[in-house]
Structure formats: C-alpha cells, structure tokens
Target: 60S ribosomal protein L10-A
Amino acid sequence: GLGLRHSPAWKSNNPVTRPFSLLFPFRSLDTQRHPTTQFAGSAYRQFPALTMARRPARCYRYCKNKPYPKSRFNRGVPDPKIRIFDLGRKKANVDDFPTCVHMVSNEYEQLSSEALEAARICANKYLVKIAGKEGFHMRVRVHPFHVIRINKMLSCAGADRLQTGMRGAFGKPQGTVARVNIGQIILSVRTRDAHRATAIEALRRAMYKFPGRQKIIVSKNWGFTPVRREEYVQLRQEGKLKQDGAYVQFLRGHGLIEENMRRFPDAYENLSQA
Model:
C-alpha cells in the first residue's frame, strides 16, 4: 500500500519518478544511505577533487610587488610555518663559539616560511647529531613578513557561472614569505673551531631547501660580533671589551670617564700600569 509507494526502491524503479532522479543526481532519494548529499550544493563535499590544491612556491619566487606586510588593512593572514629563529646553545658566552659560518643569498627573491622551516630543521638535525645540542648556536636571519595572495578560481564543470574571471582579482592572503637581497645573510651558525666543517656541511644541506643560488661563507669575525678575530683577541687582552651575551660592548673614546671606568675597569688599570 502506502508504505511500498513511498519506499526508495519503489521511487527508483518507478518510470514516473526516475527522470527526476536523473535530473538531480546530487539529491539522494535514500536518506539513510546518503545522509550528507541532501542538496546539489554538496557536490564539493562529495567530490574532494573539485577543491583547489595549494599553489607551488615557484609561483611566488620573484619579488614583483612592493612589500605587503600584515596590518589593519591586510587581515586574515595565516601564521608563518617557522616560529623558532634561535636554536642550540643560545645563552653561550661569546668566548665559547669563535667560529661563525653564514649562508648568503646570491639572488633577489622570496623565500617561503615553509622553506625556512625546512632548512632550519635540516641544519639543526645535522648539527645536533655531530656537534651535540650544546655545541652550536644557529640563528635564522630573515623573517617572513611579506604576505602573498591568491585569486582562487574553480576548475570544475559549470564553474564559469560561479566565478567572475579577472574582475575583482586582488586575491586573499595565502601565506608569508621573506624577501632577501643579493648578499643578505639567511642563516648563521657560531660554534667551536673543531666543528667548523660540521657547520659548513649543515648549511650545505640546508641550501637544497631554498630556490635560487646561495653560497656559504666562513666569517673572519669572532662569532656573531662585528670584530675580526685578531682584533677581538687584542681588545680582550687590553680590557676594552665587555661580554654581552652573544655580542660584546666596546670601550668608546667619548662619554663620561667615570662611567667608562665603572664599565671597563681593566682597561684603565692597564693604562695606569703602562
């Protein structure tokens, strides 16, 4: 009777209702077997291939636009993948790690936050394995502040009725990248003299995570300081240096003498003895 007439099997085999089931394939007649496909708009849930994949980073390699940072005008920016910029023994004294190795960019390009995170993990894993987690201090010297945009377009059947082409094509934030110039330092590692080759190899492996060309330079300065190694040793013997974490403070030739004597007593003792 009535129960058979309203059953899904009767509706699918009935010649009267069968054309309607072919016209509306996304409207399920059997609600128990297909509870999610109740309307035609669920085609995107039923076919995941219709959703757009992430655009490759080679599309955003070159610096074509002006810097576009996150601001009150640029909202809804996803967080960058890299969150840690200092690794290893960060509180090591400046005298502990005299050797410094840099990875320097040789191109004017953009590096994605995913590439920076991959390079950081790669270099850190090798340094921890060979030098130990207390035998180095690595620092990422660039930050992904530039926001890249994407103008999403549907690529499924009938998408021409849902999108407007290049009308209003400014795009929405997709991710963040770091803009680097020629000669700019990307990664820096300070370590002991015995682990100099280890630091070079770690940065060489991290180079494969970046596009473009980079080069590895062994710095002539002492650690992260701006002073050459020979000059650093001489200033330290004369007492004209004051250790300040990974850096140093210098005795300048100006200012109050009382303040300089309080901060650098060894320098004035050496002068009085001379």
Notes: Residues 2-50 form one domain. The CA atoms of residues 76 and 173 lie 7 Å apart. The chain is about 30% helix and 20% strand.
